[in-house]
Design a protein that fits this description.
This protein is of the alpha+beta class. The protein is built from 13 helices and 13 strands. A hairpin with a 7-residue loop joins β9 (319-321) and β10 (329-333). Bound molecules: adenosine-5'-diphosphate (ADP), (3R)-3-hydroxy-3-methyl-5-(phosphonooxy)pentanoic acid and magnesium ion. It holds the Pfam family GHMP_kinases_C.
């Protein structure tokens, strides 16, 4: 059987994180930073897993992994999670309180339990993921990982092959739905925005259960991303907002509604005829400020994120936290009139705080697959230069 690479991007949420979990609109785009997976069958009935970003290397006998019997709605995932299976897999991987490793392994094996065919079961497979995204920093590394897992297992087990009769849109939807299940394992209660942006690419306005709306014009915006390097887990931040919401629903709900209106205002700005670019960017920056204020009021800012805002505002730039907050990344809007010297100064000041600055493209392609003509070893895959996957390969995207 062939060897496959799969790949998918991280994301940046411009407006609407957290509120999107409550059914509000959010605005997000895919990043140039991506994760890459290798999947290929073996002959010794083992699953050989290597996840260097979370320092996990494990090998399991494929027949020891719990499996899920054929379910209603096959091959689309069931609506609710199989919590018994999750418990079994938690015991099986036995990684205790090593949350990041454990969640990554369980997410993979959860999808494996549903999707592995008898043919793959008779062989075993290698599964490796490496990522250029910071893990646990608000740029959707979990979703990017989840989309790589879903694409790889669906492709390996033949669910995306021509014989299934699924067109590209249906294949993309299948990948997105399975990636959402993996995100559920990692996050608990994800909105689905991260896996959707990672699968589709581009820039979108997203509302749970509704048709995804592309956001044209967004690609022309420039952002500086700053990783405060303060670790946090999305699951914990989402749970904290939930506690506040349940304690003070009449206070928190209007805040979530206000965040909803930020994305709507963003769309209005972009669709307003005759609004010149400099006014557009000024208004956009004002919305960045308002959204951050509301997120801070929801309790998901952090002194390090406030530091990013303080430093950038001294140079006239607007910043907000992005993703779940509590640490992780902030985004700073770079208006067209901001000089390269100003960007260099702001970066220098932020880096002096121990933060990491990244300038990356936004709105690029979503999930992709590459079929290799020759098998590769795990060591070869891991040894490739960071830029190898994008510069030397012909990827097929779900478009
Ligand atoms: N490259 C990767 N390899 C394995 N697991 C990953 C990878 N990237 C992310 N993860 C999983 O996602 C978790 C981080 O998810 P999360 O807290 O949502 O942060 P993020 O904002 O980066 O999505 C990690 O603890 C790990 O379980
Ligand atoms: C906070 C939230 O809106 C985004 C989380 O993004 P990230 O995992 O921090 O990259 C949660 C969600 O939408 O599921
Ligand atoms: Mg995440």
């Amino acid at each position: 059987m062939p060897t496959y690479f799969t790949s998918s991007p991280g994301k940046v949420i411009l407006f609407g994180e957290h509120a999107v979990v409550y059914g509000k609109v959010a605005t997000a785009g895919s990043l140039g930073l991506r994760s890459y997976a290798l999947v290929q069958t073996r002959e010794d009935k083992k699953i050989e897993v290597n996840l260097p970003n979370v320092q996990l290397a494990r090998s399991w006998n494929i027949n020891d992994v719990p499996r899920q019997a054929r379910w209603e709605g096959y091959p689309y995932p069931p609506q609710s999670m199989n919590t018994d299976l999750l418990d079994q897999l938690t015991k099986f991987v036995d990684l205790g309180n090593q949350t990041n490793r454990s969640q990554a392994a369980i997410a993979l094996l959860y999808l494996h339990s549903f999707l592995t065919t008898d043919e793959t079961l008779a062989l075993g497979y290698d599964f490796v993921v490496r990522s250029n995204l910071p893990v646990g920093a608000g740029l959707g590394s979990s979703a990017s990982y989840s989309v790589c897992v879903a694409t790889a297992l669906l492709q390996l087990n033949g669910y995306l092959s021509a014989g299934t009769g699924l067109d590209v849109a249906a294949q993309r939807d299948l990948v997105n739905q399975w990636a959402f299940q993996a995100e559920r394992v990692i996050h608990g209660n994800p909105s689905g925005i991260d896996n959707t942006v990672s699968t589709l690419g581009g820039a979108v306005m997203f509302k749970k259960g509704e048709k995804i709306e592309p956001l044209p014009g967004f690609q022309s915006l420039r952002f500086l991303l700053t990783n405060t390097r303060v670790p946090r887990e999305t699951q914990v931040q989402v749970a904290n907002v939930r506690k506040l919401h349940d304690k003070f629903p009449t206070v928190v709900n209007p805040m979530l509604d206000a965040i909803n209106e930020i994305s709507n205002s963003c769309k209005d700005i972009f669709s307003q005829d005759g609004l010149d670019r400099s006014h557009l960017l000024t208004r956009f920056g004002e919305l960045v400020d308002v959204n951050h204020g509301l997120l801070a009021a929801l309790g998901v800012s952090h002194p390090s994120l406030e530091k990013v805002r303080e430093i950038s505002s001294k140079l006239g730039l607007k910043s907000k936290l992005t993703g779940a907050g509590g640490g992780g990344c902030a985004l700073t809007l770079i208006r067209d009139d901001v000089t390269p010297e100003t960007v260099a100064v702001v970066k220098q000041l932020l880096e002096a705080e121990g933060f990491q600055c990244m300038e990356t493209s936004v709105g690029g392609p979503g999930a992709g697959i590459l079929t290799l003509t020759h098998p590769t070893t795990i060591a070869e895959f891991l040894a490739h230069d960071k830029t190898y996957f994008d510069t030397t390969q012909n990827w097929t995207y779900f478009v």
